[in-house]
Amino acid sequence: MLNKRIIYIVVLLAVAGGGGYYAYNEFYSTSLQKEYQTKTTQVGDYVIEADGDFEIEMVSPEEFSSVVSPDLDKKIVFYNETSEGEKIVIIKKIEDLTEALKLNKSSSELWLDLASYRKSIGDYKEASNIWEYMTKVWSKDTTPLYNLGDLNHYYLKDFAKSEEYFLKAIENDPRFISAYRALHDLYRMSFTEKTHLADDILLQGLDTNLNHVDLLIPLAIYYKETGDIKKAMEYYQKALKEAKNLKNAPLIESLEQEINTLK
């Protein structure tokens, strides 16, 4: 189970009858893996029930209308090599998502899917436009920020911009483990002016996510690769302790092998 759910509520006033109705969509972050019980919360006259740890964020209609949405009639152009069979499938997917969004622009899930397909055909500009739009409408959603960070790192090679997006994702959700690891990779592999921050960002993540094995292991690997065997041993040992707490036998075996190579 994913650890956190943000439910966005868009409250709209009905034109006739004086009543009201609302639409909502959900966002799952990809940080800690944890089981949660079903719980409920009330917003006005409405009761929201969902599994997991969730927060409610109200989104007014003005927030949608004040931000210009991406062009849903934008031409589909393949900028990378794609087989004819794959093109047929992807075009159909984009067309279906486009039609769905014309009926419901408040669905963050549909926008995410459309951006992913635009990225898959090499249309990085349009994928970026969609994710940028999402950061304005769903300002607490870490997913478009993470995707923008990844796009700027590996595809657009704008490392400063990539860093900016990953840091914003962490600011929105300090438990978002993937963002710390992505920044670590950015500093270690690409953003050479800030290579010295490669371990700092993982240590920062551990301040908030105490002894999280997915931060301890890359930190141990980093110290091993940079020749700091003492620190590598320290963090491998901490990771091993957590793996034993999790009773993860394959991970325990792998970590013990790594530790033996350092002795």
Q: What would you say this structure looks like, in words?
A:
The chain has helices at residues 61-65, 84-103, 108-120, 124-137, 142-154, 159-172, 177-190, 198-208, 213-225, 229-246, 249-262, and strands spanning 4-13, 20-28, 38-43, 46-51, 53-59. It has a 3-stranded mixed beta sheet with strand order 2-1-5. The protein is elongated, with a radius of gyration of 22 Å. It contains 11 helices and 5 strands, in the order βββββααααααααααα. The protein has 263 residues and is of the alpha+beta class. It starts with a strand and ends with a helix. The model is unreliable at 1-38 (pLDDT under 50).
Helix and strand arrangement:
Layout (H helix, E strand, L loop, with lengths): L3 E10 L6 E9 L9 E6 L2 E6 L1 E7 L1 H5 L18 H20 L4 H13 L3 H14 L4 H13 L4 H14 L4 H14 L7 H11 L4 H13 L3 H18 L2 H14 L1
Parallel strand pairs: 1-5
Antiparallel strand pairs: 1-2, 3-4
